[in-house]
Amino acid sequence: MSMSANLEKRINKQTFERYLSSLRYSMYVITHPFDGMWDLTHEKRGSIAAGNTILLLFFLTNLWNMRFEKFLFNRVRWERVNIWQQILGTLFPLLIYCVANWCLTTLFDGKGRLKDIYLGMCYSLTPYILLINPCTIISNFVTKDEGDFLAYFESLALVWCGALILVSVMQIHDYSLMKAIMAIIFSIVGMMIIVFLLLLFFSLISDAVAFFISIYKEILFRVY
Question: What is the C-alpha R_g of the chain?
Fold first, then answer.
């Protein structure tokens, strides 16, 4: 084996080990949120690859839950589930939040980059993956009355994720608690504004295309 092949193999191994290390780091983040979120971005303990993996697992967890949760606790009809809608329903709000939060915090002395905000969001989803998957399995072995126990853990997953998102804003942007809460609230408002502008933009494009198509048809009608 040539020296270049050995070097490439070593680099690939180091890259993979770095990926596994950043993925395992999500467990530290959810149990030590303040130190974890700080080191995630400031000490480069996280990676985009690991963040994408967590986001993919979050999406698959939602699908798993919709498909295999016991019918007593699940009102979703699987045959009506559109995978593409689920993908957009997962990715679109997250990406819009990241953009809105980045735009807002840039104006108010936020220290985080768009990449850091994205990583903080992705790593904050880890508790949802860890708690919802077992709940989905257990739901098939409990009665409806015992389902309150599962509802508690599902609520815990959401609260835990929300708390991690709050901490991520505090640590990534070096904000106080109240400033981080206000940043999240205004980021949600910013999301609404961005969605409105996108809808307005696509509506104008659609009207413009329809206008030019009507002109083209009118020209064809008069010529021929």
Answer: 23
- Say if CB 194 and CB 100 are below 8 A apart: yes
Answer yes or no: are the C-beta atoms of 157 and 101 closer than 8 Å: no
Task: Give the length of the chain.
Answer: 224
What does the block give as tokens for 219?
């020209």
Domain boundaries, the chain: 3-223
- Tokens 């994205």 belong to which residue? 118
Residue 171 to residues 23, 35, 218: CA-CA distances in angstroms?
A: 19, 8, 60
Read off the tokens for 19.
């990926």
- For 112-137, give the DSSP string: --HHHHHHHHHHHTHHHHHHHHHHHH
Least confident of 64-78, 107-121, 130-144, 197-211: 64-78
Which tens digit of pLDDT belongs to each residue from 10-44?
Answer: 667 788 888 898 999 999 999 999 999 998 888 88
By the 8 A CB rule, do 164 and 124 touch?
Answer: yes
Q: Which residues contact 210 (CB under 8 A, 6 or more apart)?
A: none
Which residues are within 8 A (CB) of 49 and not within 5 positions of it... i.e. 6 or more apart? 19, 22
39: its two tokens: 């080191």
